[in-house]
Structures are given as C-alpha cells and as structure tokens.
C-alpha cells in the first residue's frame, strides 16, 4: 500500500466504518493472543488510522478506533 498505510489506514481514509470495526476487532484479538496487529501503527508520515479518520471527517470511524484503544496522543511528523 502507498506511504506505508495499513488496511486500517485505508479503511479509515475512506470512512468504511464496518470494515474499520472488523479490522479493529481483529487487531484486539491479535494483540491479546499473539501481540499482533496494532491500531497505533504509523505510516511514512507518522499518521495512525485515527489521524486519517479525523483528517477526513469520519467521526464514526474515529469513535470505533478509540474504542479499540487507538491512542489519541500519538504525534505525527506534522506535530
């Protein structure tokens, strides 16, 4: 994917709330069982999926990410 985006970044950018919910649930299960997927992964710009959702005005997606433990205080490269 472009710019180091994860599937969660792409779904957040497009406002696909159902997909974000599925991916977030998977991320939570992976973290609990395997230390796997992390909703706080950053792309090449230092953006998390939460940054992307907020930037494009997808409040519902942002709420889903926050409930999946996305950190609201991660700073990107723009600070």
Automatic annotation (TrEMBL):
It comes from the Eukaryota. It holds the Pfam family Ank_5. Gene3D superfamilies: Ankyrin repeat-containing domain. This is Ankyrin repeat domain-containing protein 6. ANK repeats lie at residues 45-77. Keywords: ANK repeat, Repeat.
